[in-house]
Amino acid sequence: MKRILKMRDSVNRYPAMPKPAEVSAPQLDWEKKNITMAIKEKQPCSPDGRYGLTFFGLLIMLSISTGIFGAQIAAQNDVAAKGNPVYQGLQPNQFFKKWFVLGPIPVSTGKTTPDQDKQKKKFEAEPPFRIKDLSSARSGHQIGDKEYQWQLVASENEILDLNQICGKTEFAEAYAWAEIHLSEPKNVLLGIGSDDGIRVWLNGQLIHQKRSDRPVLKDQDLVSVTFKKGKNQLLLKIQNGRWDWGFCCRVLGSETLPRKLVETAGLGDLDTLEMLLSHGADINATTYGLTALHYARIRGRDDVVTFLREKGTNPKIPMPAPETVVDAFFKGIIKEDFPGAAVLIAQNGEILYQKGFGYANLENQIPITPQTKFRIGSITKQFTASAILKLQEESLLKVTDRLSKFLPDYPRGDEVTIHHLLTHTSGIHDYTNHPEFASAVETYIEAEEMIELFKADKFDFDPGEKWSYSNSGYFLLGYIVEKVSGQSLKNYLKHHFFDPTGMTNTKVHDSKQTRKNETTGYSYAGGEPKKAVNWDMSRAGGAGNLHSTIQDLYRWNEAVFNGKLLNQNTLKSAFTPVKINDKNQDDAHSSQYGYGWTLMEKRGLKEIGHSGGLPGWMSYLTRYPKQNLTITILANASPTNPNLVLSALADRIAEIYLWQQMKPMESFATDKTVDISDDYIGQYDYAGGIMTITRERDQLFAQLTGQPKFEIFPQSETEFFWKVVDAQITFVRNKKGEVAHIIHHQSGQTLKAPRLEQKSVVQIDTATYGDYVGEYDYGHGAILTITKEGNRLLAQMTGQPKFEIFPQSETEFFWKVANAQVTFVKNDKGNVNKIRHYQAGTEIQAPKIK
Q1: Among 58, 648, 687, 843, which has the highest number of CB atoms less than 10 A from its own CB?
Q2: CA–CA separation, 477 and 419 (whole Å)
Q3: Which of 595, 179, 73, 143 is nearest to 381 (CA)?
């Protein structure tokens, strides 16, 4: 069966220009490079309700302009809200902050989680009441067997937090009503945001609907609508899935349209550009000093450039200096009295820009400067890898040496080489994944003791078989440096790297020492920065124990890429992507990692770098080697201000400086139709998660495990893209004509995701579920808890969400959200005494303990 979908026409007429994207980090950066291209869980109570898209540790900015979600609310039952939700006229740029709100109304009356069909049916249902005027809005409504009353609510912020009005109610709906009086008809552009789905009626007519599991963003949906003369009734229905919920609504005007226009030009969305211009957006207005034409050029949107010229843009407006734009970016993102960042940009051995923003320490109001020290997390891996390679140059070891040479009693040590450790292909389980790890990170530990804690872990896969980011490998490498050199890692790095390059502010972090000019690490919670967990960096070792400054990291890059620390043959090996088992295997993960450096391509330009992160700190260091451009950004908050996405900003900076050397990017307009096969629908293996492709009517959607669902749009019969981020997927068929896998393209990187065989759910007697209920011990504090809810069986790992598992047989169950299965095993007495868990080629046996 096929459906006709509108296709966005791809236009790529001319050569030459840019794009922004995002890099985040491997573990010890808590955005793992193995598995995920994941949309982060929605966090509406974070500073602005934003989230990002991670892909191999790449974090893509979805929006620039968002609002603080933790709104202050005044409700009639709490603090008297003055007046009624009646507006005299429409005030452009101003949010509707006063509403009548009714709810929460449960999506289902049952005790179990409603399925998708039930949620969808409820979402599409018309309101179970009629409002004729203000007086009828004050009265209650009988919905089901319950009487609901409208509350008069006034928000002090742009985004109305329904948690504060209706509670953190999952799988529920709420309605919001307001009345607008106009002296004449008016066509406007509404900017609407919601968490999660939303339907909007104007004067009883449905004008907009968006069913999506998402956090609220300002102006994430744009709706062109005409208000009539006289009284207008605006009714919103918000349906919540899980976690927080809320909404916002305003009319875009002269203050907000320019920013949206510039952003849209960068995204290459010709449809929205047309809409914005038709509603009066000034084609020559600026954001961060850039016009839409400037930004289209920087992003390499040649067809947008042509479009804007045809619409009458002024091509003679000079583009501001790169440093001016960078300064505006960071000033617009970081508030002076919040945690911040230090930024340095250099080219051809000359520092072009260096500056600090925000506070290194909030309590003492110490500002960040270029000399401020930050913990750099996994950027440390560059130094650890370089130490190993230096020892090889000194003929003290070889990357082909076996782990057993240095740790004779390490399990399977004869199978693991230093090469495997350097390239994350050893199969050694990442110790930072242990559930109990977080509870011990503030205490000192000896390296030998740490190794003892994870050496007994079962391997995730056979050495050399796969690529999977592992901090354990680099912890072991740091230990090997010490054992071979006879020096501490601290002294070895100082003698061979820090002293020769003048890196006087870079050291192995020691929690016992007080350091001048050091940042305090913060984490955002409920929109406010709080002091982060203070790791004892002995727990990170060679995987992430350094602290440094932007100036020192610049010195490091200059020394490395100019061959002052390692010879050219060594650098060539370090910058060569690993091949699985020495074969040219199409493995997107392995093709991007060498020896301690991530190898990328951004719009035709080679990029070599690494990112890092710890609770309280994020870091990013990159080099465009042919252009001799270094960019480094260090921040002292993680989870951070969601606008401060280091890799996205670094990509934007690179485009600002190098756009004329970069390849152009395609832009799109929805003006064609294309036949879309139903056989695209299914699940695709993204290693640590599953991408589920679904269809609703004539729309195709993509959703990664446990993350928001977004519509994807056809660029051709096999190519689709996201509007919210620069990412595309291509459906690929095998020789039999069957869809075999998808290719995911994002930020110059590629992931091949095979299609998963659709498992059939069999019907079994659910009375047997009671035998499986209990707790199963996975070791290291990880417990899988099996519960029964109605006729459903659910599984929850320690510290993770609860997911339903589905029967393949009477004893075999599988997850739909991950490529994993469990088998319940009975003893001789017929009692379930353990489970066998299968995932990523690994089998784990977990005894039943309760």
Answers
A1: 58
A2: 10
A3: 595
Q: How far apart are CA 242 and CA 247, in angstroms?
A: 15
> How high is the pLDDT of residue 689?
74
Residue appearing with tokens 């229905």: 237
Q: Are residues 714 and 653 in the same domain?
A: no
Stated pTM of the model = 0.79
- Residue 721 neighbours by CB under 8 Å, 6+ apart: 8, 668, 712, 713, 715, 727, 728, 729
Give dist(CA 281, CA 273) in Å, integer: 9
What are the C-alpha distances in Å from 585 to residues 578, 588, 642, 711, 745?
A: 10, 9, 36, 31, 18
How many alpha carbons fall within 13 Å on the CB side of residue 538? 16
Cβ–Cβ under 8 Å, residues 95 and 193: no
Q: Tell me, yes or no, whether 625 and 697 share the same domain.
A: no
Which residue reads 């609860």 in tokens?
802
Residues 6+ apart with CB under 8 A from 653: 322, 326, 329, 343, 345, 631
Domain with residue 286: its CATH number is: 1.25.40.20
725 in the same domain as 579 = no
Q: Is the dihedral of CA 727, 682, 460, 30 positive or negative?
A: positive
The span from the CA of 86 to the CA of 76, in Å, is 16
The contacts of residue 832 (CB under 8 Å, 6+ apart) are 771, 772, 774, 824, 825, 826, 848
Q: Is residue 677 part of a domain?
A: no
Residue 607: predicted pLDDT: 96
Question: Residue 174: inside a domain, yes or no?
Answer: yes
Mean pLDDT of residues grouped by 10 in the chain (850 residues)? 32 25 28 30 30 25 27 34 81 94 87 72 89 71 87 90 90 95 96 95 95 87 96 96 90 93 91 94 94 96 95 96 96 91 98 97 96 97 98 98 97 97 95 81 94 92 90 98 97 98 96 87 82 93 97 98 97 93 51 90 94 94 98 91 83 96 81 69 80 84 79 84 81 89 77 83 90 87 88 85 88 85 92 87 82
The secondary structure of residue 735, as a DSSP letter, is T
- pLDDT number for residue 113: 64
d(CA 427, CA 410): 13
**Closest listed residue to residue 378, CA positions, set 752, 746, 634, 623:** 634
The answer to whether residues 266 and 236 belong to one domain is: no
Q: Within this chain, do residues 546 and 533 fall inside the same structural domain, yes or no? A: yes
Instruction: Count structural domains, the chain.
Output: 5
Does residue 380 share a domain with residue 239?
Answer: no
Outline where DSSP puts E strands in 487-627.
507-508, 522-525, 528-531, 546-548, 598-602, 605-614, 617-624
**Domain presence at residue 347:** yes
Q: What pLDDT does 583 receive?
A: 53
Q: Answer yes or no: do 526 and 436 share one domain.
A: yes
Containing structural domain, residue 524? 335-640+643-661
761 occurs within a structural domain: no
Question: Are residues 175 and 100 part of one domain?
Answer: yes
| Residues facing residue 607 across a β-bridge | 600
CA-CA distance, 270 to 261, in Å (whole number)? 10
Q: What is the pLDDT of residue 219?
A: 93
Closest CA to 553 of 326, 339, 357, 344: 344
Q: What is the dihedral of CA 691, 695, 699, 705, to 10 degrees?
A: -20
CA 371 to chain CA mean position, Å: 30
3-state secondary structure of 740: strand
State the alpha helices, DSSP H only, in 89-204. 116-124, 134-138, 162-166
What angle is formed at CA 485 by the lines to CA 483 and CA 486, rounded to 5 degrees? Answer: 65
Domain boundary among 755, 782, 804: 755
List of E strands, 41-97: 52-55, 58-61, 73-75, 86-88
